[in-house]
Amino acid sequence: MPDITTVTVLGTGVLGSQIAYQAAYFGYDVTSYDLDDAILEKARGRFVQLAGLYTADGMPGAADGRADRAAAGIRLTADLGEAVADADLVIEAVPELLELKRDTYTKLAELAPAKTIFATNSSTLLPSDLKAFTGRPDRFLALHYANQVWRNNTAEVMGTIDTDPEVYASVVAFATGSGLVPIELKKEKAGYVLNSLLVPLLSAAAGLLVEGIADTETIDKTWRLATGAPAGPFQIFDVVGLTTAYNITAASPDPKSQAFAALLKSEYIDQGKLGIATGEGFYTYGTQTAGSQSAEN
């Protein structure tokens, strides 16, 4: 079974930063890649913020310096070749756009050593949609993280018919070693387990809103009161991130999805309201709340 000790995460968005930090916190040698130094500087700030959150949440060893050491130990680079030169595992967490992901894997196939395993964190795309562009379909699979990975510590592992079972087992072992609970899927399923359950809820809520049936607060209140859930669907949208929600709904031909995408863009994204990560989305959040949750991708 391939041994994973060095990990590279592509994309330093809020979730990409969480993935990198979680691995570093559990002792892996981690490199974070993004397009330029300005983006990487923001990522460094996210790592510092995560160190504070791990400490506030009482993660083992965080208050004794482990959290700060993890933040300081992550290497940052805008050179893709340098980022993957010695990686045992590359976790791709770039925006949820098929052509962008395919282009990313085409470049990776040329730059990464033969030993490297590729894993996509895609929320909605099947690994089969991408495997032909990896140059190593036997060493490619999906590894999907939930938001707030140190709290909601699931790691959904999903291979294709080409994925080497030893590679699959190695990624399961990595997930366990980085403080996560592996969720092993037996076959490919768009949306995995988590989003197969979550997306219908969010789609139904979006439909109620764009049809004018009820406002966001009423929809959320109904869900919380009737089910005992801690958050309603529009609160969840804010955690997921409105850019991710827009990318997914804009790609759907369904008229309600198109209407919701248009609403997200005009009323929220164009106004810089991207969800909890920016302090405002469907709801407004204080500084501490904004930092404590995340937007995917």
Automatic annotation (TrEMBL):
<dbReference type="InterPro" id="IPR036291">
    <property type="entry name" value="NAD(P)-bd_dom_sf"/>
</dbReference>
<dbReference type="Pfam" id="PF02737">
    <property type="entry name" value="3HCDH_N"/>
</dbReference>
<dbReference type="GO" id="GO:0003857">
    <property type="term" value="F:(3S)-3-hydroxyacyl-CoA dehydrogenase (NAD+) activity"/>
</dbReference>
<dbReference type="InterPro" id="IPR006108">
    <property type="entry name" value="3HC_DH_C"/>
</dbReference>
<keyword id="KW-0520">NAD</keyword>
<dbReference type="Pfam" id="PF00725">
    <property type="entry name" value="3HCDH"/>
</dbReference>
<keyword id="KW-0276">Fatty acid metabolism</keyword>
<comment type="pathway">
    <text>Lipid metabolism; butanoate metabolism.</text>
</comment>
<protein>
    <submittedName>
        <fullName>3-hydroxybutyryl-CoA dehydrogenase</fullName>
    </submittedName>
</protein>
<dbReference type="GO" id="GO:0070403">
    <property type="term" value="F:NAD+ binding"/>
</dbReference>
<feature type="site" description="Important for catalytic activity">
    <location>
        <position position="144"/>
    </location>
</feature>
<dbReference type="InterPro" id="IPR052242">
    <property type="entry name" value="Mito_3-hydroxyacyl-CoA_DH"/>
</dbReference>
<dbReference type="InterPro" id="IPR006176">
    <property type="entry name" value="3-OHacyl-CoA_DH_NAD-bd"/>
</dbReference>
<dbReference type="InterPro" id="IPR013328">
    <property type="entry name" value="6PGD_dom2"/>
</dbReference>
<dbReference type="InterPro" id="IPR022694">
    <property type="entry name" value="3-OHacyl-CoA_DH"/>
</dbReference>
<comment type="pathway">
    <text>Lipid metabolism; fatty acid beta-oxidation.</text>
</comment>
<keyword id="KW-0443">Lipid metabolism</keyword>
<dbReference type="InterPro" id="IPR008927">
    <property type="entry name" value="6-PGluconate_DH-like_C_sf"/>
</dbReference>
<keyword id="KW-0560">Oxidoreductase</keyword>
<feature type="domain" description="3-hydroxyacyl-CoA dehydrogenase C-terminal">
    <location>
        <begin position="191"/>
        <end position="285"/>
    </location>
</feature>
<dbReference type="GO" id="GO:0006635">
    <property type="term" value="P:fatty acid beta-oxidation"/>
</dbReference>
<feature type="domain" description="3-hydroxyacyl-CoA dehydrogenase NAD binding">
    <location>
        <begin position="6"/>
        <end position="186"/>
    </location>
</feature>
